[in-house]
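Self-study notes.
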Amino acid sequence: MNTKDREEKIANILIVDDIVANLVVLANMIKQAGYIARPVTSVKQAMQAIEVRIPQLILLDISMPDMDGFEFCEILKRNPTTRDIPIIFISAMNSVEDKIRGFNLGAIDFISKPFELEEVTMRVNNHLKIYRMQQELEENNARLQKLVNEQLDKIAMEQKNILFAMAKLCEARDNADGRHIENVGKGARLLALSLQLSKKYEKQVSDSFIECIELAAPLHDIGKIAMPDSVLLKREALTDKEAEVMKTHAKIGADTLKTIYSAGGYNDFIRMAIEIAYSHHEKWDGTGYPLGLKGEEIPLSARIVSVIDVYDTLVSKRCYKEAFTHEESMKILNEESGKSFDPGIIEILNKIQKQLKN
């Protein structure tokens, strides 16, 4: 081990006192105790010394000409870089008021002048030991938190994989072309990004909202996994009874996602997926299902996904229909503006339709 490495392992103690004689006495005591002494005569020098190397302990005089120890202690405790450094006041001032003020500012101890070698050594040793224990505890907590976060990320990823597998299964049963859920996720992100740039929606659409909707949107029809083939794959128009059965997929999907969310509610995208699954068939004019919500009663995420879902369904071939052109699909969406869809969202959609088409 070289000299620099050895010095890194030995505690360095900053001593701040404008009286040189006191610095000499304390520095010798600190060296005798086996530590590195760093004596300075002013707060300015102390700040410079701290910038060069953070001390493990500061011995700080109270009575100094430019700035007293109390003020300097207050500055150090406000700074995130220095607030955890233990500070011991050194002073001939031994009044109860001074000690209370020092402790309130964050000091850990007082050493009175004149200095006694045994007292200084014992107090410094004890407080350095406590400081090291605190540092080790913080490091262990940080390592533990990292492990916990890694496990939570792993669980979250497993949840996402399971949910997307279920969504893909629903899509396969629906005889789709295999790209619908991906298209809805990408389209919802594109539309949300565009809404973020508009004055009407910018406060509602944060960066986290955009990230969540891309993950949540593909799960909008996850409730269809519970639909019977006779309803889901029927080529002719559904009967009233069959239509009522099909409508239940919204609640079934939301309830399924709620079960997953309750087991690991730290996933914001699942919370959004719940509102999308439940409300993406609501209509702006209140004629949708399952609750007949109207206008802005419908969650914004569901209003976005409902537009993208219908668009992708229109331009795609299904077992019950041929694909419409982009132009035909946009015409249908515009005709439903203010009826099925939020007119503000349709207005933005018209501006980005070339990107959507690509």
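Second protein, same conventions, sequence then structure:
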Amino acid sequence: MSLLVWVMMGIAIWHFAVWVPDRFHGGIVGALLAAVVGAVVVGLIAGGFAIPGEHDTHLVQALIAVPGAVLGLGASYLWGMRAGDPEGPRL
């Protein structure tokens, strides 16, 4: 059940990506995947590489996923900025 919470929290944080210029690696879909993967990876690390069951899922599980989603989005953004656009910025 915690895996579902981590994925949903990654999607929720991803919605804030509309407030920054679209320079994510893979565009907005790449940002979605980066946020979800980041949230799940940090959730797994925090859970000791085990997925807590239904009775062990609390509000803390949702809060654990926030830094992972932000780190995933940040990594995707930096990767996209570094790759750059050979045609220049789009206005």
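Instructor comment on the second fold: The chain has one domain: 2-83.
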